[in-house]
Structure formats: C-alpha cells, structure tokens
C-alpha cells in the first residue's frame, strides 16, 4: 500500500517508470514543482504519459476562455461526482495556488451561480450521458447574467469529461493520496472493505477479522453447492453458472452496503455534489423503450 499505487510495488514504479520516462517526469517537476502519484504510475507507459501530460497542460495552464481557478473548480466538481477524493483534494490545492476564493471550497452552494449551473450537465455526463439533449446546451448559453459563452462551455465540457475519465484511472490503478493529503486524512478513496487490523471494531457494523473469515467460509460452501448442482443438472451452460455465482457473491455479506461507502466519504467530497443519489442506470433493458440518444460529430 505504500507508494504511488496500492496495487504496484514502489520499487517497480521507480525502476521501470524512472528508466523509461525520466524526461516526462522531469518536465512534470519543472512545470508543477512536484510529481504527483498519477504521473508516477503513468510513467510506466511513457508514450501515454507524454500525451496525457500535454493534454493536461493545455487544459489547465494554457490560454483559454476560462480563468485558471474556475478550471480547477470544474475539475473538483467532476471528480466529486464520481466520489474521487484523491482528485478533489489535489485540485482543491491547485485552486488555492492560482488564487481561487477559499470560500468556494466550503461547497457547491458557495460557488457562483454560473458554475452551479453546470451541475445538471455534470451529473448527466458522469452517469447517463445518453440523456443529454440540445436543450441542456441551450439553457447554459441562454443570454443572461450567468450565461456561458460557447467557447467557455466547450472548455468546461472537455474538463468535465476529462476528469470523469481520470477518476476511473485513479480508482483502477489504486492511486494513493499524496503525502500532504494523507497527513490531513482528507483524501482517502471510498472503499467497501476496511482493514480489520487498523480500523475500529465498529467500522463495519461490529464485524472484525474473525467474522470476515466466517463469511469467506460461508461463501466457499455456497460455491461448493453450486458446483455439485452443476454435476447433477445436464445442459447447464458456463454462462448460467457464472450468473449464479455472481448472484451468490453479490448476496454475500462480503459485499458491503452502499451506505457504508457513502458514510466513509469525507465532507470535502460530498459538499460538491448535489443529488448524490443520481447514478448510472442501464438503458438497454429488454421490453422497455430505449431513451433517445444525443449524437454529435
């Protein structure tokens, strides 16, 4: 768990990443004065890191219609939508460094109305982008005190989608908090599992390491019964067996209720989210009319 990634040994990152992408890491350090954990992990793929770093630099630091502090605030909004506390904490620091108003970091309700107007399209882009229509764009461009120009909105939408995607990278690579974030305990990613050796006994509703072992034994017994039933039933396909196993696994006590993950989130993430219950919903259900899709080339 120590180092930039919870999944990749620190020695491997330093050896392979350092040898293959030294130039990119040096450029990152010169530009930002530091090398964050995302850059360290992505350094294992130097060509990808190079493209990513150029894109990130253009989005956040080069000329554009949006001032720098608003770019970082939009990044916070996008990351918070996916409950990515790592990126929220990272860009809260960047927001202050470029002169952002600290009061805005108290939550979305403290931000200007113009930024708050992005909430709806941020929510849809993050979870159900097929529901976006031209009316959502028109509402933001409508003439008024808090209206967006077309150039501003284009940059804002690119930032939103960029950080929605980057949140997936952070979770998928097990990116650990930066040292300064870890000291403040403000940016730990949400997790349905808790280390019983370090967590308080009531962190999982009173269950500890002993209960976890018992739950594993119960799950293994269910798997054994499923395998026996497969031998008894003829014509059972592998797909059907896989479906049965996934159902058993989901129903197992090993899968923590979603409210535990929500409670584990620090308020510095939830305060940037309106309508937190809104999430992904499958749009290809059989027997139901598919929602209209918004296509643009």
UniProtKB/TrEMBL annotation:
Entry annotated with the keyword ATP-binding: no
A cellular component term, taken from the record's GO annotations: cytoplasm
GO BP term (any one): positive regulation of macroautophagy
Gene3D superfamilies per UniProt: AhpD-like (1.20.1290.10)
SUPFAM superfamilies to which the protein is assigned, alphabetical: AhpD-like (SSF69118)
Residue ranges of the region described as Disordered: 180-211
Stretches of the chain forming a coiled coil according to its record: none
InterPro entries: AhpD-like, Sestrin
GO molecular function, one term: oxidoreductase activity, acting on peroxide as acceptor
Reactions the enzyme catalyzes: a hydroperoxide + L-cysteinyl-[protein] = S-hydroxy-L-cysteinyl-[protein] + an alcohol
Keywords on record: Cytoplasm, Oxidoreductase
Protein location: Cytoplasm
Family: Belongs to the sestrin family.
PANTHER family associated with the record: P53 REGULATED PA26 NUCLEAR PROTEIN SESTRIN, SESTRIN-2
Protein name (Swiss-Prot/TrEMBL): SESN2 protein
